Amino acid sequence: MNVASWISLLAPLARAARVSCCTLASVALSSACAVQGPLLPDAGADSGGGVLLDAAIDAGFTDGGMPRSDYGASGPDPVGNVRVSMTDRTGARVLPVELWYPAAESARAASEAGQPMGEFERGTPAESGLAAALASAPACVRARTRSAAAPAASTRRASMPAVVFSHCHGCTRFDVAEVAERLASHGILVAAPDHLGDTLWDATLAAIAPEFLAVRASDLSSVLDRLLDPTAPEVPADLRGRIDAARIGAMGHSFGGVTTGAVVASDARFVSALSIAAPISALGTLRAADVRVPYLFLVASEDNSIGSAGNRLMRRDHAALGASSWLVEVQDAGHWSFSDIAGLDPALQAGCGAGTRQEAPHAPFTYVDNATARALASDVAAAFFALTLLDDPGAANLLSALPLPDSVSMHP
After folding, report:
1. Domain residue limits at 263
2. Which residue in 293, 289, 290, 261 sits closest to 275, CA to CA?
3. Backbone torsions φ then ψ of 69, nearest 5 degrees
């Protein structure tokens, strides 16, 4: 991949504007990418831009200074993952939960070698179903993880932030495993439950409606309850009691993105959030103006699931949010472009291979390469959560920019 990806930044409505763009050095996109975001504290209108760190690129930085790490690449820690079970607050739902976490240095070789994707359901009732789906899966589906199976946790830090993830409608907890691995490599634990009744393995799916949205949001809060309980037996012993209650984020994809908005509005323990391919106000149960935590929206410009109307609503939510908000829009990306399981099932096809554009004349095109899209999502998520959870003001520069080329379209 030799073509640089462009990201543009536009100050949100009702804030002082500064138009710019950012090259994500670790990702090369053949199509344009647009970012809209706020001016940050201590960053004036004439501040310089920045890029994800790369030896080949000279970056200018705002008053936040240089980032402490290159969030456009794997961080200093190897990554481990393990499946646990957690009971929700009602006692009626026993949720499979995947944890990704910074692992001990002894796990580095195993982490870099990774595991086949089928290992996520090893020993579960879904094992044969996942194996069959993977056997006929297109190249869009990620083949291997970059994490080790249940190694010891890193002891480099006494405590760590956490992000709780909500998967898409009819998907799985490992929907965005690559993004989770990137966060874990930078010291952020990620916990992702299967929303029972709305997974790839359920014969009948719960409706996308306010009633099940509340169940999903409760799942996320229930997982956080267990993570923050220093005596919780479900949490591996070397992670127990180490989650920093003051540094908790939420992240979700599709219906999970709507779930993310719902949980941060109802559970004050979450201090930042990221939604992929979903407006948080989609079901009419939440006003973006009522969300008071920093937020990032990741938009797929050719989203064949929520469509053009859903993307317009995402842009509206970004503009109306009651706190700092960023919007990253990736051209030629589809609904599952950022997912590890794009194309694993016919229902997860939008974003894999060939598609039809959302707007007239509805021309055929090819979605952005999935490995590229996953890497871009990982870059953006790592920079955003470094800023909001790792207290790295230099990460603000990674959401900042270089002069905007005329070829990149801006969205009001």
Report:
1. 75-390
2. 261
3. -150, 165
- The answer to whether residue 399 is domain-embedded is no
Q: Which two structure tokens, joined as six digits, stand for 301?
A: 């410009």
Q: What is the pLDDT of residue 394?
A: 87
Q: Is the peptide bond before 361 cis (omega within 30 degrees of 0)?
A: yes
- Both tokens of 103, joined, read 């692992």
* Residues 6+ positions from 29 with CB-CB distance below 8 Å: 1, 3, 4, 5, 6, 330, 331, 368, 372, 376
- Residue 146 sits in a domain whose CATH number is 3.40.50.1820
Does some domain include residue 21?
A: no
Token readout for 377 is 């999502």
Distances (CA, A) of 70 to 27, 91, 312, 378, 403: 13, 42, 32, 12, 22
The gap from C-alpha 78 to its chain's centroid, in whole angstroms, comes to 19
Tokens of 218: 């409760």
The total domain count for the chain is 1
Residue 82 lies in a domain: yes
Residues 166-190 as b or e (16 or more Cβ within 10 Å = b) = bbbbbbbbbbbbbbbbbbbbbbbbb
Residue 241 lies in a domain: yes
Rounded-to-integer distance, Cα 308 and Cα 251, Å: 22
Tell me the mean pLDDT per 10 residues along the chain, length 412.
24 23 29 41 26 32 72 95 96 97 98 98 97 96 98 97 97 97 98 97 94 97 98 97 98 98 98 98 93 96 94 96 93 95 94 91 93 94 96 81 31 30
